[in-house]
Amino acid sequence: MESTTNSRIWLGVFILSASLLFVGAVFYIGKKKNLFTATFNLHGVFKSVSGLQIGNNVRFAGITVGTVNNIVILTDTSVQVDMVIENETKKFIKKDSYAVIGSEGLMGDRVVNITQGTFNSSSIGENDNLLTMEPAETDAILSSLQATGENAEFVTSQLSEIFYKINNGEGVLGRLIQDSAFAGNLTQTINNLKSGTQGFSQNMEAAKHSIFFRGFYKKKAKEKADKETEKAKTGDDSGNGGKK
Description:
The chain is α/β, with parallel strands linked by helices.
């Protein structure tokens, strides 16, 4: 008799647990499918849905406001996405809002993101078609990153080759750094230029005392002295005028 009572108790607990689990599942699925809220329908036509599936979320301003109800291939270049949106959101979605297919994370499920339109635009209506923007394909992004990586590798290889040649004394810069004889010749050339400049100065000084150029230099010296005297007189006159 006692065993029969225990069995009935466990059977009741099992049935109650199963019922609660069933009700919870129905409530969860109904909420995900918007079965318990007023909804309206929107549509968007894309060239590619990029892995979007029926049941994926639709978001507006980062908030989940609906789900993807159906995906239909119209032509070989267009796919229509049907969305079920909560009725409370209708007044916020504008005619110039865009639908963009994105991702919940780096490897997450695909979602439809609806952008915010302009304030002066009118609100969307039942069964309207949203403007759409094509999603960025993952393959295209990876291809671009691969090309960038290859370019960086090529540049690094070229720089490595240049520095290798410099370290081994190849090229003008390499010889300048590594070849002591080349560096000595360059130093000697600079010293010769300095000596030549000094010799030119000495020759010019000697020419001043030469019988052929003595008159020319005396004339230049006299003109310079006259200019300085005239300048001094002008300054004195200005000073006297200021005293008066």
